Amino acid sequence: MSTESAPAPQSKVAEDVQQGPRIAVSALATNLREYGLILALIAIMVFFQFTTNGTLFKPVNLSNLVQQNSFIIVMALGMLLVIVSGHIDLSVGSVAGFIGALAAMMMVIWPLGPFSNPLVVSIICLIVGGAIGAAQGYWIAYHRIPSFIVTLAGMLIFRGICQALLGGGSSVGPLPDGFKALSSGFIPDVIGPLTLIPPTVNAAGKTIMGSGLTLHMTTIVLGLIAVLAYAYFGVRTRRKRERHGYEAEPFALFVVKTLVGSALALFLVYQFASYRGLPVVLLVMGVLISLFVFVTKRMTIGRRIYAMGGNSKAAQLSGINTERLTLMVFINMGVLSALGGLIIAARLGQAVPAAGLGSELDVIAAVFIGGASAMGGVGQVIGAVVGGFIMGVMNNGMSIMGVNVDWQQVVKGLVLLGAVIFDVYNKNKA
Amino acid sequence: MASTILEMRDITKTFPGVKALSNVNLSVEEGEIHAVVGENGAGKSTLMKVLSGVYPSGTYDGQIIFQGQECQFKGIHDSEHKGIVIIHQELALVPMLSIAENIFLGNEHAKFGVIDWDANEARTSALLKKVGLKEDPKTLITNIGVGKQQLVEIAKALSKEVKLLILDEPTASLSEKDSQALLDLLLEFKRQGMTSILISHKLNEVNRVADKVTVIRDGRTIETLAKKDISEDRIITSMVGRSLDDRYPPREPDIGEVVFEVKNWSVYHPIHAERQVIKGIDINVRKGEVVGIAGLMGAGRTEFAMSLFGRSYGRRISGEVLLKGKPVDVSSVSKAVQHGIAYVTEDRKTYGLNLIDHIKHNITLANLGGVSRHSVIDDMRELAVANDYRKKTNIRASSVYQMTGNLSGGNQQKVVLSKWLFADPDVLILDEPTRGIDVGAKYEIYTIIARLAAEGKAIVVISSEMPELLGITDRIYVMNEGRIVGEMPAAEASQEKIMRAIVRGEGKAA
Q1: pLDDT digits (tens, 9 = 90+) for A141-170
Q2: Which sequence spans correspond to the domains of chain B?
Q3: Could you point out which of A57, A115, A409, B359 has its C-alpha 20 to 30 Å from the C-alpha of B41?
Q4: Is the pLDDT of residue B19 over 80?
Q5: What are the pLDDT digits (tens) for B499-510?
Q6: What does B237-304 look like in DSSP terms, one character per residue?
Q7: Cα A393 from Cα A408, distance rounded (Å)
Q8: Cβ contact B350–A313 (<8 Å)
Q9: Closest CA to B462 of B350, B248, B296, B256
Q10: A303–B354: do the CB atoms touch at under 8 Å?
Q11: Would an 8 Å CB–CB cutoff place A293 in contact with chain B?
Q12: Alpha-carbon span A103 to B461, nearest angstrom
């Protein structure tokens, strides 16, 4: 800046000088919400860690927590895009229930021969989910029928089909083990376990459950790779910014952020490794979350979705095909609802008529707790994920504490309202 | 013989950075039709907003004396209470309510909150009779035409026991026949002793009904003409007679071959399918040329431009667009952009910007391909581009991470311009590029336009400010009621000539 030879007016020079610290402050301000949310999650976890006498962070409970809530988070990824583009999808719970029923029928009841293979069934189900999303998105995108109405209809329709498919009130199962692994399975330990403390053997010569310490080494190695990659890409992006002469965020903030993030991740990895390793569904979720962060932050389609949600007319006049984009957002939602349905069915080991009932509200709540705006155009993938975990940890923690289900709903409602009020208050203050 | 009903003395109204009105005086006598004329942006509407209390007392200087009393209106309710009713250009009716419901909206005949519909409808029928509208009071507003809606507005005004009726461009969206009926109604009211103020730039109408004409220009009262002195020529001279100083950057036009050509372009209204908005327009623009489209509000200029740009307006669009002599398909915005056509909207907040996102993302939105590879955005390249355009167009912001919603109008306009400059079009259509921005920012925008022309782009500028067109363009088309009614080299054009083309065109279009 100082090498500029052209005479700049006084005010402009002052402006440029101020730019450095100002960016730092604004970076902090814009990320405050995200950090605040993560801090809130940590605070809630610590709170329940105490009130449940340490049960929450027990490896077995962490695995449960992930397996119970993964379908909410998977669907929240799709819902985030739906809400950012200025819409809503009320049908996701019913679609998930329907797909679970469809999968169970294909695998257990219908004589499909080789097509009842869990992998084939899953792929077909994801395609059906996409088609459902397309069918709903078509009316929303091309005929401008409010998404609230279209998906409310979808909610009724697919719950009905789900129940009809299962023949009234009955459940269909058991589902094959290969399929159940999607939800309740753990990744195989290809490296081999590392026994640090041998388990105690009782008088009968059997090992006592939970005693000793054996680490699932594949999980440890994967965790280390992930943390190193996280730190490496963080540093690389930072270097790149600096090379181009742009200060990203204060160095101290960056270091603290990276260290806290890594420490937290390593702690969780250690907990999983000391139990049965990384749940398969956590791996699936991790891959999806990374994919959606990348799509929303780095890809043109992500940018276009935010622009469409922020000002649909301006986006259209900038050459963005808003109709097709809306359709794609709903197809994506349909596929993820289907995946959510498969995860639910795999966890229960059977398809039940009430699978996913009411989960659309949990999914939507997760996205709003995560800071998305009901007006569209605002919202982050990480926010929705953390929002989903906040809901999940509260569910889990309150259940362990023995809080009545009725009161659990009251608490969740208050948290949702509080999070949004906090957001609006912050925005008005800014 | 008549007494003065309204006097506005030395009204001065300042907006941040702009003096909209300075020492305006208006004196209206009881029982007359007083016309207020002036160019768009001269300050007519501001003056009426001061009078009706939209700008409450205390936000302006000067005195309002109505029926001998000094008034300090705190809001529109106060002025209506005194019998001053304004009917705005954009009608304020609720489409899905009936005529009767609209007329008594907020003012219903009711006991303990229970509406007496019979009383409302009986009164409505009486009012409709007065304005000569034969409609059932239960008819929904959405089911009657604009002309009739205008009459409902007037009936609503009458229901408030109006003493002074102000009509802001009442015939702007009316057909010739409806306009005539409305003017006849005004004359009838006058016979009954009502006073009205008519704001209009249709001089033939003013000529026909007004007893007095006050001309406003640049926020000042120029003169008030009595009935015997009213003539179109006199008013035009008075309306536009301002000196032109160096408000425009100098430029040396270097004009090449025809780049952009539109042939026989016709467009119908998107809702009223039988109404033809654009009636067979032919224009062409050359390389390095700045072409202006002049005309009054409602002439169809924006509709023309938006229908050209990916059919963003209207239905049943016909006609041909040629780029460098070859017909091109501009049936969607992305196709138009691919062919190198860009349209910078007149309404930047509604159509131009994502106000909840920052400058950087707004600038690259129309050309994300230019900052990405395999659909993955290169953050650094995007930042460099945004900073580059921020410098080029002199956007005043703390950084490119500032929300566009927090920028001033001039800076917002520069962001929209940057967006389209980055898309690198051959043809750039600018719709009211300087509306609502201050003089300094205007000069900067003119400089950008001159530079683009020098780079060989073909530029179309739509503007309601005639001095602006005269100052920055090479050639001017005059548009009125969906047609081109005149074409002249800017060097030979004058505001008077343009105004004459418009006024003459008005008769032809009927």
Answers
A1: 999 999 999 999 999 999 999 999 998 778
A2: 4-240, 341-424
A3: B359
A4: no
A5: 888 877 654 443
A6: HHHH-----S-S--------SEEEEEEEEEEE-SSSTT-EEEEEEEEEEETT-EEEEE--TTSSHHHH
A7: 12
A8: yes
A9: B296
A10: no
A11: no
A12: 61
A241 with A288, same domain: the answer is no
Closest CA–CA distance from residue B349 to any residue of chain A (Å) = 8
Q: Please, what's the largest Cα pairwise distance for chain A?
A: 90
Of residues A19, A303, A378, nearest to B399 (C-beta): A19
A118 with A253, same domain: the answer is: no
Query: Are residues A310 and A393 located together in one domain of the fold?
Result: yes
The CATH number of the structural domain formed by B4-240 is 3.40.50.300
- Average pLDDT, stretch A278-285? 90
Which residues from B are below 8 Å from A303, CB to CB? 361, 365, 368, 377
**Interface ipTM > 0.90:** no
pLDDT in tens, A12-36: 333 343 444 445 555 555 566 667 7
Residue A312 lies in a domain: yes
Tokens, residue B270:
């998107």
Q: For B154-175, write each residue's pLDDT tens digit.
A: 888 888 888 899 988 887 667 7
Q: Which is more confident, B58 or A103? A: A103
pLDDT tens-digit series, residues B273-321: 778 888 888 999 999 899 999 887 778 888 898 888 888 787 888 888 8
Q: Which residues of B touch A317 (CB under 8 A)?
A: 309-310, 312, 333, 343, 345, 351-352
Same-domain check for residues A342 and A353: yes
**Any domain includes A399:** yes
Is A123's pLDDT higher than 70?
Answer: yes
Name the residue range of residue A348's domain.
30-185+279-429
Residues A314 and A230 in one domain: no
Q: What is the mean pLDDT of chain A?
A: 85
Radius of gyration of chain B (CA): 25
Whether chain A has a CB inside 8 Å of the CB on B229: the answer is no
